[in-house]
Amino acid sequence: MRRIPVAFLVAGLLTAGALPASAQNAQRATPPALAQPYKPVAIVPPMPLNDPTFEAFRKQLGEVAQRKDRAALAGMAVGQGFFWDHDSRDGADKRKSGIDNLATALGLNNKNGAGWEILFSYTDDPTASASRAHKGALCAPADPGYSGKDFDALLKATQSDASEWGYPLSTSIDVRAAPQSTAPVIDRLGLEFVRISSDPSPSANFVRVVTPSGKAGYVAADAIAPTGNDQLCYVKEGGGWKIGGYIGGGEPD
User: Are strands 240-247 and 231-237 parallel, antiparallel or unpaired?
Assistant: First the structure.
């Protein structure tokens, strides 16, 4: 779903959510077919955007999100031309304003939802990268750099989907035998894609993974990010930054 906060759990797909209630299901063993070695595919971690004006805009956006100030947020979004890449189509209603489309995408109108918290979470990540689909737009959090050809080959070789993979946010991350910081280290992750086990972790602080060497273990949830992040996108308008679009599944109203 989205990377921020980066702690996430997997139940078929990578999503951010609550732990399943069943501890039995969480303790299931990794299927033998999953705990197999695979060819590593290197990644370059996302880098912070070195732009003081963007940093200032991001800080202001965080303050607006904390206040749940829709009027102020409206002034920070484009008036028209907002895009929403949703289910392989543009889900934005071009008859509506940017703030109305943003509110729909994030579920800001849902009093019982977490739309404002989700918006604030985007302001906590300093990375951003140019959108391939929308010229002039920067989307955050940034995706890692990697070889698309090699990653496609990895998916084919493992008969997996991109949503089953994540990547470390730094090098030499310990993989432990159990979801505990004191558990023995059984492997270490380099700057490479890592497969996420379909079995959820019994701890919200750890994610269960299978390393390139085929070892199943646990890594700290805040040390790894899912592929296919939802992203908030920004454009330059009138010499300043504006929220110009959203990439992701959206939140129900």
Answer: antiparallel
What pairs with residue 14 in β-bridges? 10
pLDDT at res. 250: 62
Distance CA 167, CA 106 (A): 25
The contacts of residue 135 (CB under 8 Å, 6+ apart) are: none
Question: Does residue 247 contact residue 230 with C-beta atoms inside 8 Å?
Answer: yes
Classify the C-alpha dihedral 5-205-163-200 as positive or negative. negative
Q: What is the mean pLDDT of residues 171-181?
A: 94
Q: Give the per-residue pLDDT at 185.
A: 97
Give the three-class secondary structure for 205.
coil
Q: How confident is the model at residue 167 (pLDDT cuts 50, 70, 90)?
A: very high
Residue with tokens 């497969």, as numbered in its chain: 195
DSSP state at residue 19: P
The residue whose two tokens read 């310990």 is 174
Look up residue 120 and give its DSSP letter.
H
